[in-house]
Amino acid sequence: TGGGGNPYIGMLRARELVRAHGPVDVLGLDELPDDSRVICVGGMGAP
Fold first, then answer.
1. What is the DSSP string of 3-47?
2. CB atoms near residue 14 (< 10 Å)
3. Residue 1: its pLDDT value, please?
4. What CA–CA distances, in Å, run from 12 to 19, 37, 39?
5. Among the listed ranges 8-12, 13-17, 33-37, which one has the minimum average pLDDT value?
6. How many angstroms separate the Cα of 35 from the Cα of each of 11, 12, 38?
7. Distance, CA of 12 to CA of 32 (rounded, Å)
8. Cα angle: 12, vertex 17, 19; to 5 degrees
9. Are 9 and 45 spatial neighbours (Cβ–Cβ below 8 Å)?
10. Rounded to whole angstroms, how far apart are CA atoms 11 and 6?
11. 29 or 46: whose pLDDT is higher?
12. Within 13 Å, how many C-alpha atoms sit on residue 46's CB side?
């Protein structure tokens, strides 16, 4: 009855990628050059 799956799996994958490639920089919009490409991600689910 709904739900998006277990968010724990996504957390493990994100942790693996940060360990392999380094931390993610979070920037304000005013810090980005006008020709920047930006992606938005999000997750939702119930364990």
1. ----HHHHHHHHHHHHHHH-PPP---GGGS-TT------------
2. 13
3. 53
4. 11, 26, 21
5. 8-12
6. 30, 32, 10
7. 29
8. 95
9. no
10. 9
11. 29
12. 3
Q: What is the pLDDT of residue 12?
A: 94
Asked if pLDDT for residue 43 goes beyond 90, the answer is no
Please report, as a single letter, which amino acid is at residue 1.
T
Q: Which amino acid is at 28?
A: G
- Domain limits of the chain? 1-47
Q: Are 43 and 4 in contact (CB under 8 A)?
A: yes
Q: Is the pTM of this model over 0.85?
A: no
Tokens standing for 17? Answer: 């990628």
